[in-house]
Amino acid sequence: MQQELYIYNSLSRKKEVFEPINAPHVGLYVCGPTVYGDPHLGHARPAITFDILFRYLTHLGYKVRYVRNITDVGHLENDADEGEDKIAKKARLDQLEPMEVVQYYTNRYHTYMQGLNVLPPSIEPKASGHIIEQQEMIREILKNGYAYESNGSIYFDVVKYNKDHKYGELSGRNIEDMISNTRTLDGQDEKQNSVDFALWKKAAPEHIMRWPSEWSEGFPGWHLECSVMGRKYLGEQFDIHGGGMDLKFPHHECEIAQNNACDGDMNVKYWMHNNMITINGQKMGKSLGNFITLEQFVDGSHELLEQPYSPMTIRFFILQAHYRSTVDFSNEALQAAEKGMQRLFTALNTLEKLKASDKSSFNLSEIKEKCYQAINDDLNCPILISHLFDGVKIINSIKDGKATISDSDLAEMKELYKTFVFDILGLVSENNEAGASGKLTESLIDLLLNIRQQAKQNKDWATSDKVRDELKALGVIIKDTKDGFEWELE
After folding, report:
1. Segment 349-379, tens digit of pLDDT
2. Which CATH architecture has domain 282-431?
3. For residues 56 and 76, is the Cβ–Cβ distance under 8 A?
4. Is the peptide bond before 121 cis (omega within 30 degrees of 0)?
5. Which of 202, 301, 422, 475 is the Cys-Cys partner for 218 at CB 3.0 to 4.6 Å?
6. Which CATH superfamily is 6-274 part of?
7. What order do you get walking across the sheet with 238-244 strand by strand?
């Protein structure tokens, strides 16, 4: 069936039908991490959000070029134009080369993204690998009159730009209000206006990462990298630019201004932003010191965690809220996600063992249509998951003999759950996640239950009860059936 995807465009502030510029090709750019520390739950949210989008666009038949950058230079403390580079600061504290820091935390990021079953992007460029292109864009903006030099640094002239374009249209900010709110800030003597932002910064003597230019030995501003790499790999116009809601201003607002100032075009058709992970209502992040790393989630070492949580539990937890809604951390929510996911995979195991009848006692097409309606409605994963659980009730009813399913519907239902659970939602069975170890565990449980079955046939009730009780203590729920037994993990 033909699917019509609606996505919420942060620029127009409404849902729009997704119509690629050059179908079937789709350009997707997502702001990746600044790699100066271990990835935390806040990093998982955009990665999973745009992984779902990438997966679904691919499922619809589009040829997606997915670019997710690595910020390894130019991102200063407090997202400002003054202060120390975040990576350079980490390198100084740890007595490492900055690129050692970059490589170490990039590797860590990849490891945890793989654990979350986030697909790798098509291209993963680094800011430091595109200094020449960033300098070229600065020259274009200078030539067009929207930037100026000051003591070896280049600043974007926001006030002049605002006369010809609208600065603040993505974030809804007013330039007069911004100027009045920042007028008294220190450290902006080089700027003509407090709202101007750096395109190129002259490096202080102690600054480690620096490159030659006609203006000074220095480094590019944080906002420039995404404008440059998006244009280089996706063209002067591309379909979707994504990232966290905290990037709307100033990062994405500055990107739009740079793009317009360079070639008179905003470049991006749809802007998409995921909301934040919060703890007690406050954004989770490194700058606030209230973050929990993904490693701490997996090993349960953080003081706020009651237990370890698997990467798939984290993924399912995040998917249970719409990407534009906040997700508030709590152990209760994570534990509920863990149980819900186990229930879903137990049903999938049951589905594989179901036997078909002559006809179905329910309408499978209706379930399928509802699933597509949910995902087409701006990637509404919570509603999609609720429909999948409606199907779980039907699966269990068939198992219990209270409903029937035809042979063709059984094959289609298996394909439906494969498509949505594995291909689109990107979930992986905990046993499959464990690989050979998980298969060994299943085999051992089956072996013990076969021993128990044999003991029952021999009327060796002591052995039978002992096996049952020991497995129950390990969280294995056993159900005796007329054909033998069934089991599931608690």
Report:
1. 999 999 999 999 999 999 999 999 999 999 9
2. Orthogonal Bundle (1.10)
3. no
4. no
5. 202
6. HUPs (3.40.50.620)
7. 63-68, 25-30, 238-244, 268-274
